[in-house]
Amino acid sequence: MRSLRILQNGATYHVTSKIDHNDMSLFEPRFKLLFLTFVGKAKRKFRFRLWDFCIMGNHIHFLINPGKEGNLSEIMQWVKCNFAKAWNKTHNRTGHVWGERFYSRIIQVVGEFLRVREYLEENPVKAGLVERAVEWVYGSLYQRLHGQTDLLDEPPGIV
Question: How many domains does the chain have?
Answer without folding.
Answer: 1
